[in-house]
Design goal:
The protein is α+β, with helices and mostly antiparallel strands. It contains 5 helices and 3 strands. The radius of gyration is 13 Å and the shape is globular. A 3-stranded antiparallel sheet has the order 1-2-3, with helices on one face. Helix 2 runs parallel beside helix 5.
Length: 117
């Protein structure tokens, strides 16, 4: 069941694309496997009004970022700063192998970079 959810988010990622005029943005890559993820946010009154991500990567990185964008929408910045690595693994429903942990956390890392700039 969880693996199918990962494949669905990889095949049809949610919130994929770019915003017209983002207020916050960050981009990172994983040189070990070539994943590249950027995230754009529109933040107004301390809360996320819009979120999109772009880039290319493996099924784990794309699915984890897609799932994360669904969680991010409408949240206050202070709530987003409290998201932990374990929360991303819970979204995925599986603990990635050690070689895939960085893939799973790339979108989370990009989000944290975007909201702290």
């Amino acid at each position: 069941m969880y693996r199918e959810q990962i494949l669905e988010h990889w095949r049809s990622p949610q919130n994929f694309g770019k915003l017209t005029a983002p207020t916050h943005e960050a981009f990172e890559n994983n040189p070990l496997c070539g994943d590249e993820i950027g995230m754009q946010l529109n933040i107004k009154n301390g809360a996320v009004e819009g979120v999109r991500f772009y880039g290319a990567g493996c099924a784990i990185s794309m699915a984890a970022t897609s799932m994360l964008t669904e969680v991010v929408q409408g949240k206050k910045i202070e709530e987003l700063k409290k998201i932990k690595k374990e929360d991303i693994f819970n979204l995925l429903g599986v603990m990635p192998s050690p070689s895939r942990v960085k893939c799973a956390l790339l979108g989370w890392s990009v989000l944290q970079s975007a909201i702290t700039r």
